[in-house]
Amino acid sequence: MTKKTNAEDKPGFSFPDAKILIVDDDKITIDVVKLFLKNCCNIQSVYNATDAINSLIKDKIDIIFMDINLGIGKNGIEAVKQIKKMPGYEKTPIVALTAYAMHGDKEVFLNAGCTHYISKPFEKNDLINLVNGILQK
Questions:
Q1: pLDDT in tens, 39-51
Q2: pTM (predicted TM-score)
Q3: 69-125, pLDDT tens digit by residue?
Q4: Residues contacting residue 72 through CB under 8 Å, at least 6 positions apart
Q5: Alpha helices of the chain — where are they, by DSSP H?
Q6: 10-45: per-residue pLDDT in tens?
Q7: What is the pLDDT, as a whole number, of residue 118?
Q8: What is the DSSP letter of 61?
Q9: Radius of gyration in angstroms for the set of CA atoms belonging to the chain, rounded to a whole number
Q10: Which of the 8 DSSP states describes residue 68?
Q11: Where exactly are the structural domains of the chain?
């Protein structure tokens, strides 16, 4: 049997100095992302846009995973637009991490300022490959 190759098999997948911020109002999604990326980098999480902005002010983040529907307060798109205006975050990769997966949704989020897109539910290897690709650039 041939072993399937994935990002975990690639040399250099560990980025101990890289910082990822997950912004999602769903604890299960946060827990899954943390589980899938636990040996990759430093992971922080918040449940809303206001806490995301405050986290970004306090600490330089390398990748932001942004849920689009955050429930109360600003939605993910509003947060992305505000983040892109923050000094030092103009070019930071922001991944739309969302259950919106209808035809055209990805383009809407990319046009709104997200640099990448992954839809829920996602596979472990898809998430790992996405993060690995972003951090290797």
A1: 889 999 999 999 9
A2: 0.88
A3: 998 899 999 999 999 999 999 999 999 999 888 888 999 999 999 999 999 999 999
A4: 25, 48
A5: 27-37, 49-58, 76-84, 105-111, 124-136
A6: 434 688 899 999 999 999 999 999 999 988 899 999
A7: 96
A8: -
A9: 14
A10: S
A11: 17-136
Instruction: Identify the CA nearest to 3 among candidates 125, 133, 130.
Output: 125
Cα separation of 84 and 93, whole Å? 10
Distances (CA, A) of 31 to 34, 36, 43: 5, 9, 11
Show the tokens assigned to 119. 């839809």
**With contact defined as beta carbons under 8 Å apart, do 22 and 34 qualify?**
yes
Query: What is the DSSP pairing of strand 42-46 with strand 19-23?
Result: parallel
Give the helix, strand, coil percentages of the chain, each rounded to 5: 40, 15, 45
Structure tokens of 132? 């690995």
Q: Which two tokens stand for residue 120?
A: 């829920």
**What is residue 9's three-state secondary structure?**
helix
Residue 129 CA from chain centroid, whole number: 12
Burial class (CB in 10 A: 0-12, 13-18, 19+), 134: middle
**CATH code of domain 17-136:** 3.40.50.2300
